[in-house]
Design a protein that fits this description.
- With 182 residues, this protein is α+β, with helices and mostly antiparallel strands.
- The chain folds into 2 domains: 91 residues, Nucleic acid-binding proteins (OB fold (Dihydrolipoamide Acetyltransferase, E2P)); 78 residues, Glutaredoxin.
- Strands 1-2-3-5-4 form a 5-stranded mixed beta barrel. Strands 8-7-9-10 form a 4-stranded mixed beta sheet, with helices on one face.
- A hairpin with a 3-residue loop joins β9 and β10.
- The two termini are 26 Å apart.
- 19% of the residues are buried.
- The model has no long low-confidence stretch (mean pLDDT 81).
Length: 182
């Protein structure tokens, strides 16, 4: 699984362009035209078995499923969960619902060495700045065990980006919050 995988539901209405077959027998993808754009929607085997390949191109379909975005570049894959054949022509559209975003967290090492090197005041500064920026309900601060960088403390990890920072000072808090959460 990719480090930056996000999954969100989608719904589209469009016209069937064609089928993409696997091994010449199984339906692997539907090519669906929505206005001027064509989408390839992956069909699970259970749906492919029930889908009538005699369905003619230009038939109107409503497809719902999940969109997997695999990188920060926005490359995505559509996977169908339900397919409905529409009898009346519809206005083509695509709706991609709000992405399920991983909980935003700041992990602060609470081991003795990090705590004594300024981890405690750093944690208090992060809490203060989160409130000042209105992020207290969106970002959780969690105290953790050793992050294996004790000599470089205080140590912080920003999630969901999974980026670790060492020797973090209270002067850096504003920049870190801006970089990762605004």
């Amino acid at each position: 699984m990719s480090k930056f995988l996000t999954i969100s539901p989608f719904r589209l209405i469009g016209q069937l362009e064609n089928f993409v077959m696997k091994d010449g027998v199984k339906t692997k993808y539907l090519r669906i035209r929505v206005t001027s754009r064509e989408f390839w929607v992956e069909i699970p085997e259970k749906l492919g078995a029930y889908l009538d390949t005699k369905l003619s191109p230009k038939a109107w379909l409503e497809v719902e499923g999940t969109r997997e975005t695999k990188s920060r570049m926005g490359i995505f894959k559509l996977k169908a969960e339900t397919i409905k054949i529409l009898t009346q022509p519809q206005e083509p559209y695509v709706v991609i619902m709000q992405e399920k975003v991983s909980k935003k967290r700041i992990l602060v090492c609470k081991q003795t060495e990090c705590w004594e090197r300024g981890g405690k005041t750093l944690c208090q500064q992060i809490k203060t700045k989160l409130v000042d920026n209105g992020l207290e309900n969106q970002v959780e601060i969690r105290l953790t065990g050793c992050l294996k960088q004790c000599k470089k403390g205080p140590n912080v990890v920003i999630l969901p980006d999974k980026i670790q920072y060492n020797q973090v000072s209270i002067r850096q808090v504003d920049n870190l919050l801006k970089k990762h959460f605004t």
